[in-house]
From TrEMBL:
<dbReference type="GO" id="GO:0045547">
    <property type="term" value="F:ditrans,polycis-polyprenyl diphosphate synthase [(2E,6E)-farnesyl diphosphate specific] activity"/>
</dbReference>
<dbReference type="GO" id="GO:0016094">
    <property type="term" value="P:polyprenol biosynthetic process"/>
</dbReference>
<dbReference type="InterPro" id="IPR036424">
    <property type="entry name" value="UPP_synth-like_sf"/>
</dbReference>
<keyword id="KW-0460">Magnesium</keyword>
<dbReference type="Pfam" id="PF01255">
    <property type="entry name" value="Prenyltransf"/>
</dbReference>
<dbReference type="InterPro" id="IPR001441">
    <property type="entry name" value="UPP_synth-like"/>
</dbReference>
<dbReference type="GO" id="GO:1904423">
    <property type="term" value="C:dehydrodolichyl diphosphate synthase complex"/>
</dbReference>
<keyword id="KW-0808">Transferase</keyword>
<dbReference type="GO" id="GO:0005811">
    <property type="term" value="C:lipid droplet"/>
</dbReference>
<comment type="similarity">
    <text>Belongs to the UPP synthase family.</text>
</comment>
<dbReference type="InterPro" id="IPR018520">
    <property type="entry name" value="UPP_synth-like_CS"/>
</dbReference>
<protein>
    <recommendedName>
        <fullName>Alkyl transferase</fullName>
        <ecNumber>2.5.1.-</ecNumber>
    </recommendedName>
</protein>
<dbReference type="GO" id="GO:0016020">
    <property type="term" value="C:membrane"/>
</dbReference>
<dbReference type="GO" id="GO:0005783">
    <property type="term" value="C:endoplasmic reticulum"/>
</dbReference>
Amino acid sequence: MLLRRGWTWLQDKIYTKARNFFLNILAAGPIPKHVAFVMDGNRRYARLNRKAIQEGHSDGFVALRRMLEVCLQLNVKCVSAYAFSIETFKRPEEEVSALMKLAEEKLVELTENGDILDEYGVRLNVIGKTELLPESVQKAVRRAEDRTRHNNRAIFNLCMPYTSRDEITTAVQSCIRNANSRDSEEPYITEKDIDAQLLTNLGGSPPLDILIRTSGVKRLSDFMLWQCCEDTQLQFSSTYWPDFGLFDFIPIILDYQRKVWSRRIEVS
Ligand code: FPP
Ligand code: MG
């Protein structure tokens, strides 16, 4: 028993040392300002590991916290995560309520004093049609956003319930309202106007540098379609989200650094 505990302690120590070693090396190169995750594969992970679907989602949250911390340690300024699409409301009621319960519980946990958002000075923005969430979750969202409102070292966008088409439609509607209120004869809306009204931009997010989707599926599923338009590096990993970790992330960051360095060479 004592021997097993000692072995686990040693393994943890070695893992932490290796982790810090790799993080320090990566941090010496260019670091993306904004990384987004499409956290896919929770149910397949649950089936593979003979777990209930809900457990797949709660293990998914553990992975989210892990990756958020890795990004913050690397000094990534903004992390976005697709936690719930508007379409996910169509899933079985049992699964939807489990996800809502998880969200409510974790919003409280994440914003507690001394927890990760507090420790790294992160402002939380819950992005999407939050009015579709149950009242108790909306309350938790407002409370969590209020609690982190004054943090200014980094941003965490939890997209829930979100779709890009809804975000773009809402942005266009705001532009029309603004133009009408200026009494212009014919509302003239530019790309810049729409861009300024996107939920991510209203929350102060920088342009999206890397979008990662896990579980081997190669589509965007209505996530950050506008934000992906310019210079975003799209990465598809075959790992199911709950298993995704630093060692899946390292090659993605190295790819980003190679790209930045090769551009610097081209320009010079
Ligand atoms: C996609 O996998 C994942 C989701 C629909 C939910 C993502 C949510 C979490 C990781 C927890 C997030 C935290 C909060 C605060 C709610 P899937 O269900 O589509 O799995 P599959 O692709 O294997 O079918
Ligand atoms: Mg899926």
